[in-house]
Amino acid sequence: MARFLHHRPLLLLAAVSVAIVASSLVRPAAAVRPFVLVLSVDDFLKDSSAHPSLPSADSAGADGDADEWDDFADDSPGADPLLSPSSWVPLLDPSSSPPPGDGPDSPADSLFVAGARAMLSAASEGDDAAFITAAAQIEAAATAGHPGAQSALAFLSGAGMTRPASRSRAFLLHTFAADAGDLQSKMAIAYSYFRQEMYEEAVVLYAELAEAALTSSLISKEPPVIEPIRLHSGTEENKEALRKSRGEDDEDFQITEYQAQRGNAGAMYKLGLLYYYGLRGLRRDYRKAFHWFSKAVEKGDTRAMELLGEIYARGAGVERNYTEAYKWLALAAKQPHYSAYNGLGYLYVKGYGVEKKNLTKAREYFKLAADNKEAGGHYNLGVLYLKGIGVKRDIIEASNHLLQAVNAGQPKAIYQVAKLFQKGIGLKRNLHMATMLYKSVAERGPWSSLSRWALESYLKGDLGKALLLYSRMADLGYEVAQSNAAWILDRYGDQSICMGESGFCTDMERHLRSHALWWQASEQGNEHAALLIGDAYYYGRGVARDYERAAEAYMHAQSQSNAQAMFNLGYMHEHGHGLPLDLHLAKRYYDQAVEVDSAAKLPVMLALTSLWLRKNYADSFMVRFIDSLPEIYPVVEEWVENVLMDEGNATILTLFACLVTVLYLRERQRRQVAAANPQQPDGAAM
């Protein structure tokens, strides 16, 4: 099939993905991707004044109790989920404490830790025999009832690693692990329900996981902002994004650090942000963040004041001190930094660092923040009106404020709006929407830290470990991990250290796994994945050729305004491949491709010329030649790759081309001289 944009970057309109920020005091960090939730009047309930989930009007109102304040800061878990017996992080991070087991010398825990560690090592070293042995240890621990081992074995069973692939067995093992409290298995089960559109079941699990994600971010060592780095842009490596993810090894970071050490206040503030949020490949370090924010304030950068206030309020890297928090937030508000007003309002709601609770003043501060487009202000006003704290309860007003915060990427607002959709409060009950919103928050939970270790492994050239970790996250429903794992399989082939049913993957196993991963990513809105699925079916790559399924995949990509998919659909209509032969529809798709992407102008012009020839000279030699191109192209492409691109042949052909060029230029020079001296006999001295 004609392809006009073979390796161009694609615009990814994937499912919602937002940054979780451990902040109710100050502004949230920017969303990882734009988040726009558009609702119509029909989405709102006409009568939302009463609902069994809401406090009665008599118990709320102007003097509502601030204890009704819906905030997760006071409900932090007692233990870091990353250090649970099921977590892989202690196995990846030498600085982490070992995960606790069932007892001091738990045999099941010892088996799981040994097996998981050996599995990661075998993936790194490309040792298939060691991987099989490690999987057997994990299976033994799973048989003994270890939830982490059951979860890991479910992952291996679902992927078909060291055993036949079985989705039913994987689901059963995940269920056993989830019943024992394993959060990663709960993510996997929720995703399985989500794929099957079983929203009644999925929404319950994702709601639990979203709440866990928000609460755990307050004490986890992992950053509250997880940057899902895509390894590829289209079919090419995403070099720029990867360069910026090297942490302290990144040249830009080193320049910023040098400038900060030389006294540049802006660089100090930037370093503080990088360490506070754990951005661009850095580990979150509150102490370093506090150090650089303090230095920035000393140098006159007032932006750091509000973050110092948040640090003191949280006790992040320093002893918690609400008085200091109030001082720094008040100073920031005077600048004015309007997000600091949101923090001040929160302190007045809770009565922290101030003389007493003051809901009127809290509402005024929240409104100041919201009026200046601060998402936190909108979120907190939404909670006030939702709960009737200090104001008369107004569900419509609450919904409007919460939606403003949602579209700014405020994670707690996303959670609250999901709850409104789930329970039908103010908004019509919509479990699909609730599930989507909960999922976007849940995916920022501490289990997403595996993405950082996968990226670090990839940057170090450890493809085996990177593929294993991305595949694990793909099992939990992460679209970026699904596309990254699929891309590694396609890009690196045998070098990807893909483990199959009985050793390294065969070519067919690798193609099928890559195909399955791309398909999952396409279901979640990855248009490039949908395009590749269409190509796989169209050309019969790893699967049986099926033009109808190819058309279905291209339609999916086209629905996300993908110009290449539009061009392909036009081509299929022109030739009647999987779609009705319809030259008018073909032209429509070609025209749409140009409207979406101007880069399609030349190929579309050629395609329209082909349409004109086909319409007016249906049986001509030119039409037959055009129809033969798809058969000729793979042969030419293979010859170019296997002959011309061979290093030795390329050198010989280059020298031959140079020789021909020299002979041509000498001959042309001789003819020019002969033309300039027409009377000179042949053989005369020149």
TrEMBL record:
What Pfam families has UniProt attached to this entry?
Sel1 (PF08238)
Q: Is Metal-binding among the key words of this record? A: no
Its topology with respect to the membrane? Single-pass membrane protein
Where does this protein have compositionally biased stretches of type Low complexity? Answer: 80-95
| Region of interest (Disordered), ranges | 50-108
The keyword Membrane is assigned to this record: yes
Compositionally biased, Acidic residues: which spans? 64-74
Primary location: endoplasmic reticulum
The UniProt entry's GO CC annotations, sorted and at most eight, read: endoplasmic reticulum membrane
Q: Where in the cell is it found?
A: Endoplasmic reticulum membrane
Taxonomically, which superkingdom? Eukaryota
Give the protein name, as stated in the record: ERAD-associated E3 ubiquitin-protein ligase component HRD3A
- Organism encoding this protein: Urochloa decumbens
State the organism's lineage.
Answer: Eukaryota, Viridiplantae, Streptophyta, Embryophyta, Tracheophyta
